[in-house]
Amino acid sequence: MSREKLIEIARINKEHSLNGTIELEDGIFEVPAKNYFDRDRWQQEVDLIFKRVPLVLGLSAEIPNIGDYKAIEVVGVPVVITRDNKGEVRAFLNACPHRGAQLKEVGLGNSTYFSCPYHGWTFNDDGSLRGIATPKDFGDADKLCLDLISLPASEKAGIIWVTLNPNSDLNIDSFLSGYDKMLSNFGLENWHIFNYRTLKGPNWKVAYDGYLDLYHIPVLHKDTFGDNFSNRAMYYNWGPHQKVISPYRLPQQDNFEPEGLPSEKDYFDKPFEEWPMSVLMAGVWTIFPHISIASFTGGGRSIMLSQLFPGDKPEDSITHQYYLMEKKPNKKQAKEAHEQFKLLKYVVEIEDYKTGINLQKSLKTGMIKSVKFGRNEGGGRRFHKWVDQLLNTEDKNLTSLF
After folding, report:
1. How far apart are alpha carbons 176 and 149 in whole angstroms?
2. The predicted structure's pLDDT at residue 256
3. How much is the pLDDT for 249?
4. Which residue stretches of the chain have pLDDT < 50?
5. In the chain, what are the domains?
6. What would the pLDDT profile of 15-57 be if each residue is shown by its tens digit?
C-alpha cells in the first residue's frame, strides 16, 4: 500500500506542476514570538514533548550485530541502546541502579553485558542484574529492584525509536500513523553510514522551521544551490509527520540536474507504475518532533538524516547529522560524497543556523510580537499546532491524540 500512496502523491504533484499551482492554507498563521525563547515554555517542550513521545535515537545500521550498543545523551537523559542476544533492540537508562554511575561512555561499541565502572556491578543484555561485587558485604539485594531501568524501544524501517519515559504506554504504531511504512521504502537497514557530524544551532523550533521550509531556498541558498530550485512546496502528512517536496519540474524546464540517478523529469510522461523508488521517495521526510531526511542524487542514491535536540537553554540546539549512501561508494563516489557533505555543512551551519541565531536575537527584543507563516507555509503551521497540542494534552489522553 505504501507504493500506492507514493504514486498518489506523485500524481497530485504532477497535476500541480502542470497547472502551476500549489495547495494553500486559509489565511496567515501566527506564532507568538516568545514561544521561541521563553524559558518556561521551552522547559514544557522538553518535558511534554521530548520526554514523552518516541524519539529517533539511532539507526539499525549503527548497531547491526548482537552485542552492539550506542550510548547517547538526550535532553539531559543518558541512554544506552543495545541489540540483545536474540537480535532485538533494547534501550535503558545509561545508569547503574546502585548509585547512578554511567555504564557506557557516549559512542558506539560491542559488549554482551554491562559492567558498572564505579563498583563493578554487572547486568545482562536484557537489563537484569547479573552480579554484585562482594554480595555478602552489601546485604540482601533481593528485596530491591536492581535491574536497569528499561525504556520503550522500537525498530522500524531501519530506524530506532526510544521513549524517555519508562512508564509510557504511548503506542508507537499510533504515534507513527503509518509513516514507518512509507519510510521503509528507503530500505535504510541496509544502507552505508558514510559520515557523521554534530552541529550547534539556534532554538530547536527555529532550526526545525527551516527543515520544513522551501520558501527560503532560492534566497538564502542562492550562492550554494538554491538558485536552481523552486520556493514552492507541497506538504503531505501522516499524523504529525510530513513530507515536503516542490511540484515537479517540467521536462522542458532548463533547471540544473545533478549527474547521477534519474529524476521525475526523466519519467514525467511515463506511467507512474514505471517510476523507480528513488524518484518516488524524493523530497524531505520529517519525523516529528526532530528529524529531517533529505534525499539526494549524484554519485549514487544518498540521504542526510538530521537529528535535532534542544540544547541546555532555549536559545541553543544540537544537531547530529548522518550522511548515508544506499551502497558503499567507490573512490569516485566517495570523493563526490565528501564534497556534498562538506557543502551541506556550510549550507546548514553558515546559511541556515547562522540566520536562525540572528533572527532569534531580534525576536528576544520583544518588538516583534509574532512569527508569521503564510498560506504557502503549511508545514510550519502544522508543526506548531502539534507542538501546542502536546503541551495541552495530559498523559492519559496522549495516545488518543495520534
Report:
1. 24
2. 46
3. 79
4. 256, 258
5. 2-52+174-401 (3.90.380.10), 55-168 (2.102.10.10)
6. 999 999 999 999 999 999 999 999 999 999 999 999 999 999 9
Residue type, 309: F
H or E segment and range at residue 210: helix 204-211
Sign (positive/negative) of CA torsion 75, 80, 82, 84? negative
3-class secondary structure, 250: coil
- Cα distances from 86 to residues 1, 69, 129, in angstroms, run 30, 14, 18
H-assigned helices in 212-276: 217-220, 264-267
Side chain identity, residue 80: V
**How many whole angstroms from its chain centre is CA 71?**
17
Q: Look at residues 72, 37, 46 and name the one whose alpha carbon lies nearest to residue 58.
A: 72
The answer to whether the predicted template modeling score (pTM) of the entire model surpasses 0.90 is yes
Q: C-alpha 97: how far from its chain's center? A: 30
Residue 395 Cα to chain centre, angstroms: 23
Q: What is the rounded CA–CA span in Å between residue 288 and residue 45?
A: 13
**CA pair distance 48, 289, nearest whole angstrom:** 11
Residue 254 in grid coordinates: 532548463
Half-sphere exposure of 320 (CA within 13 A, CB side): 13
Cell of 109: 561499541
AA identity, residue 183? L
| Distances 232 to 126, 218, 246, 279, 389 between C-alpha atoms, Å | 48, 10, 6, 18, 27
Residues 54-107 have pLDDT tens digits of 999 999 999 999 999 999 999 999 999 999 999 999 999 999 999 999 999 999
